[in-house]
Amino acid sequence: MTDTYSNLVNTNPVGKKIATQLGLPRPTRLRRYEEGQDLLSGPAAVAGIGDAPVAGWATGIIKASGGDVVPASPEASYDKKLGAIVFDATAARTLDQLDELRATVGPAIKKLGSSARLVVIGTTPAELQDAEAAATQQALEGITRSIGKEMLRGSTANLLWVDQDAQGDSSVLAAPLRFLLSARSAYVSGQPVRVRAADVPDATDWRHPLAGRVAVITGAARGIGAEIAKVFARAGATLVLVDIPAAGDSLSKVANDLGATALQLDVTAEDAGARIAEAVARKGDKLHVMVHNAGITRDKLFVNTDENRWGSVLDVNLRSQFRINKTLLDPSVKGGLADGGRIIGVASISGIGGNRGQSNYAASKAGVIGMVRQLSQNLADREITVNAVAPGFIETEMTAKIPFATREVGRRLNSLLQGGSPVDVGEAIAFFAEPGSAGVTGQVLRVCGQSQLGA
Amino acid sequence: MSVRDVYVLGGNRIPFVRSGGKYLKASNQDMLTAAIDGLVSRYGLAGERLGEVAAGAVLKHSRDFNLTRESVLGSHLSPTTPAYDVQQACGTGLEATILTANKIALGQIDSAIAGGSDTTSDAPLAVNDSLRRTLMKVNYAKTPQQRISALAKIRPGQLAPDQPSNGEPRTGLSMGEHQAITTKEWGITREAQDELTARSHQNLAAAYDRGFFDDLLTPYLGVSRDNNLRPDSTPEKLAKLKPVFGKGEGATMTAGNSTPLTDGASAVLLGSRDWADEHRITPLARFVDGETAGVDYVTGNEGLLMAPPYAIARLLQRNNLSLQDFDFYEIHEAFASTVLCHLAALESPEFCKEKLGLDAPLGSIDRDKLNVNGSSLAAGHPFAATGGRIVASTAKMLHEKGSGRALISICAAGGLGVVAILEACE
Ligand SMILES: NC(=O)c1ccc[n+]([C@@H]2O[C@H](COP(=O)([O-])OP(=O)(O)OC[C@H]3O[C@@H](n4cnc5c(N)ncnc54)[C@H](O)[C@@H]3O)[C@@H](O)[C@H]2O)c1
């Protein structure tokens, strides 16, 4: 899907001039991850409030990933364009302390290059008994969300809320921090991510975190699913790709290009879980990552939605996941989900904000969110994490069918002024899949360029 | 040299499509490559070197002299996978299976793909002989003048191409005409043929509906089911068709109870137990044995398509089995009447005594075990692709049942018959 407008105002000299004169938005071509790419496009300025217990960990993680770190302060003059700002506000307990953030981060933002990152690190507000302390930490969300909307040139602002018992452990922070700093989170902005304490296996190769892991991706014949598969393959995963038999032709091509296995299967089939486990057992003893991406829309105004449109959307987008998970979570099933594994769903901002003509779809996607929140708790003792992404406007065959005017609005109504690419969704899902994100569970991460819809 | 067990591990085909339709632009190489690639993705074999790939086509362009190797090079298999072409008329696919299975049994290779492809939409059009001779003269001409005068000799009549036909070179009769003679000899009725045909369609449709082909078939060029299939076929509807083979009153063979010209390709994955284990593939069935027979149809001593009973008799004897020791019979439906003639012959005391030299007839089979998921009358019959279709489907049937044995039988042009036994794995 080509974004003609973006191309016009960015590459065509006349278009560029007109856009500037009229004050029209000029969406930046976002920096996206490529194999071997540096973590950051410039040095990271790091600072914090009080004794900033996490700043030191953050510095270590950035340096270990090949990035440069410079100290940030209200007075600092940065001699190079900054690739990122990491601000540790975990120790903030009073509203007064927030001014340190204002004073330090403000000048640094002015020195950010394009597609740069602000990552604010806080303490999970729900853990704080003192009301002002909780308010102070909650304030961080308002701050990052607002900065996200002010960011220029494809830069993003996100928030990591780290539980207190996880603040002494660098390993649990590494994968989430790296994700939010790297180009892999190109289309994620204004989002809080909570990090809990967890056992994180030693990361051997952060560029290939899925090496030796078996993953299943449904709906992988095209669109977002095919792109998730590519990201997973790049990260080293062994893949079983699922799509309906009628899509077997393109599924086979996607699979062969990635050295993956194709499984022609309707996820709504009664024995879908067993068939998936059987295919997994050919590739390894256990499954590590289950990605439920297959989805359909059958749009109609609520009052005109018949039983079939209602039922089929709920069946494909949600009910099938319960059936499949049930089989895969049975510890006796060969090829079932391993303890320490991952279940990842694909919700949608329609599931958060609702959408005209999509009551059935929004039901299914909101349902995914509900499932993620509860199942993550149910499976915590098996160290299985359950998360979902909520894509916003992603340029696919599905969104190409939206009428032009509506499509333009969907595309521009976000802080990055453009639609996302399927790969952005793939990157976010691959982040949840990493062994390093063991501390991230029960969450719904919006991949929407900070869309105003459902926000 | 010791002999080891050989297993059918899986299969893949593209939907079979009536000639001149959806696959008009697909060549044998395109289709065979697609069939191989579908198998590769089903078993995650991209980049692997297999022991060998053996496949072929009955109707071949001269450019396809290395059809199978070219298909392998165009596929996602490792280019270090050797390949060769096999051609044994409609027996090609099954013969390729037997050949590769034997190599695996001998330990010469550990894995193989056997298959076939055929198209009558992209069939080679030969120029007729007289034009060919004229053009050769043009080619050999030494001066431009000689060339022009040679070209000037071309006459409009010479421009009609030789149509590809499935006529027998030694008798000039088409296969259908041959079979019409055999059908009459064996007294096979129109009703019996139409009934068998309707069953084939109904069985194939039911197999599709229960998802039987979900792991045996990959859609191709937008087609996801054999388009010759008529799920609502009934003997009554078939009875309305006019006979097309045979003459006069007694003619019984129609376009309905004969297979149409079809395009398609298939591929079967075979391997040793060790290779299967290494790849964590659960074998579908064990390949037990195969046999090929030829009959003297030229003198009229035997019907053109009557070789299978001879092959079956020898195969049963070698394996100490009776005809009734099987749970599935997969008898290729070139024509409904071929199947019925074979069954009649196997039941006939005279035939079994005089032709097969047996004291007692091989006997009848339980018809409920015959072509239970449909066969060529419904699916269509792209000649060289039929063997692979049958071997893979039959192996899956045995796997689903979990026990038992199957007999596969395919008749072929030139008075040939290829048969094989598969057995469920322990
Ligand atoms: N494109 C967007 O902007 C967007 C936004 C939010 C959420 N999503 C969600 O992302 C996911 C992928 O969407 P997409 O845009 O790539 O759509 P798509 O239609 O291009 O791809 C969906 C794939 O799922 C497969 N599928 C459908 N039903 C299936 C079934 N019963 N069994 C197996 N496979 C089945 C389809 O064949 C197809 O290949 C969906 O869950 C969708 O709801 C997309």
TrEMBL record, chain A:
Top-level taxon of the source organism: Bacteria
Gene3D superfamilies reported in the protein's UniProt record: NAD(P)-binding Rossmann-like Domain (3.40.50.720)
GO molecular function: oxidoreductase activity, acting on the CH-OH group of donors, NAD or NADP as acceptor
Family as reported in the entry's similarity comment: Belongs to the short-chain dehydrogenases/reductases (SDR) family.
Cited PROSITE patterns: ADH_SHORT
Source organism of this protein record: Flexivirga endophytica
Protein's UniProt name: 3-oxoacyl-ACP reductase
Pfam families attached to this UniProt entry: adh_short_C2
InterPro entries for this protein: KR_dom, NAD(P)-bd_dom_sf, Sc_DH/Rdtase_CS, SDR_fam
Domain Ketoreductase: 213-392
UniProtKB/TrEMBL annotation, chain B:
SUPFAM superfamilies: Thiolase-like
InterPro entries in the record: 3-ketoacyl-CoA_Thiolase, Thiolase, Thiolase-like, Thiolase_C, Thiolase_N
Cellular component annotations (GO), alphabetically ordered: cytosol
Pfam annotation, one family: Thiolase_N
Keyword annotations: Acyltransferase, Transferase
Domain Thiolase C-terminal residue range list: 282-423
Residues the record marks as active site: 90 (acyl-thioester intermediate), 381 (proton acceptor), 411 (proton acceptor)
MF term (GO), any: acyltransferase activity, transferring groups other than amino-acyl groups
Keyword Acyltransferase: yes
Ranges for domain Thiolase N-terminal: 6-273
Family indicated by similarity: Belongs to the thiolase-like superfamily. Thiolase family.
Protein's name according to its UniProt entry: Acetyl-CoA acetyltransferase
Organism: Flexivirga endophytica
